Amino acid sequence: MTAPKTQDGPYRPARDDRDQRIAAIDIGSNSIRQIVADVSADGTIRVVDEMKAAPRLGADISASNALDETHMTEAVEALARMATLARQLGAKRIEAVATSAVRDAVNGAAFLSRVRKEAGLRVRLLDGEEEARLAFRSALAHFELGAGRSVVMDIGGGSLELALAADGLVDRLLSFPFGAIRLTERFLRGKPGPKGVKKLRKHVRAAIRKSLPVRDWRGAAVIGSGGTFTNLAGMYLARQGIRVRSVHGTRIPRHEVEHILEQLSAMTPEERLEVEGLNPGRADIIVAGLAVAAEVLARVEPRELAASGYGIREGLLLETARVRPVIADPGEARARSVLGFAEKCRYEAPHSQQVQRLALQLFDAMGARLGCAPEERQTLSDAALLHDVGYHINYQGHHKHSFHLIQHADLLGIPPDEQIVIAHVARYHRGSEPKRKHEAFWSLDRDTREKVRRLSALLRVADGFDRGHVSVVDRLKVRWMERAIRITPVPRRATAPMRLELWGASRKAGLLAEVAGVPVEVVGPDGAVYAPDDAETDSGK
Question: Which of 65, 226, 284, 315 has its CA 20 to 30 A from that of 333?
Fold first, then answer.
């Protein structure tokens, strides 16, 4: 364990009574790290103390599927010391999280129970996406990610997390069981050399190819978080004879990553102990970590990789200490937040607002008969305004990008469960209807799935009525008859052509007909009915 340290010498109380002193602890597969910091009202963070232990909870877990008793005891003792230090320093909150090793172990719950009993800590068990989110939050605070595409890569002892973002907005979070300890035990035991590395890389390559779309993320800026990357940066700088106090922000050319990996692969763990810039405690697992990093870089093809000296614990600290304004009217806060997010995504305001207006007209005319609750009106309103934000990533499959962007957005005044509904409704504004084979949709409970179907049905028709993005339709007249629902658009100008809008709405009315249980007829001003059967394939909206 490293000795306690502080930026300001002897331990001191918070500088300002308004500051919050918070401790954040990351229980990883390789190490446990704590940071204690003062957070001011404006979000400024001042580190007071840091502590580290390396019990390697993730060691041998692949074979036994359980945490080793000795490693657990070491971890609990370290956590007890960290908790004592945090309390002695006057931390008002101690936030502790556990990641891959504890998550995957059959005795993970028993370990957390020991931590609670012996160290007095309640530990939150993170899933892979939560790990990726915290790593991204940390990177966002320490790098300029507000413009362009970025991939934040965090490699721990048990897993690899990726956060894909555009202009600082998360599009998707991915997690893979590709940690440095886990893959070392599987592929690099004994003296496998380059052959073992080749097998490891092939295994990683096959998995990330399915989840990381090259079309959208090729050339993105890549940030590396975790010990693999700080050691990579240290070795890279040492090769150039550069000595620095902190490697944070070091940019390593992609070809140098391959060169360093090749060099280390040809060495034994004992020989690696002599490599300048490499922490001896990581000499046995660094090759696996770099092999994973190399495959992600080969997929994204950036010119370079930026190493971050900060990781999940800093992300946890930022999340815990987040300062939000107190808004008197939550409705106004929600509206400003949704609109601000839409603007951040550079949404097409006239079209989105037109679709929102028409969707709400449909809701008011038939929502109750479809089984919608009154509060679902606001859900539909927000989904309609945000339905095309996925254009920010790519036109192709933009409805799916809308889903990911909305799902991971920081939206004030919207409960997490409703935000998921908004994301799904936006996702189904085009393309295929909600289906059982859609894993994210089918994982919702039955009532929520039905809500998504109802609201998506209304949004699809509303979007069809602005197929040309020119806001031709002024209002919609709805008649719910015994054997059909008739929807007639009224143009803004009597002479305005609406053939495209009539066609667009008719071809997207199928889900509404299913939800309502009767056919939906889109009727032109001349009384002609535009049936979906009359529409040819449309690969656009």
Answer: 315
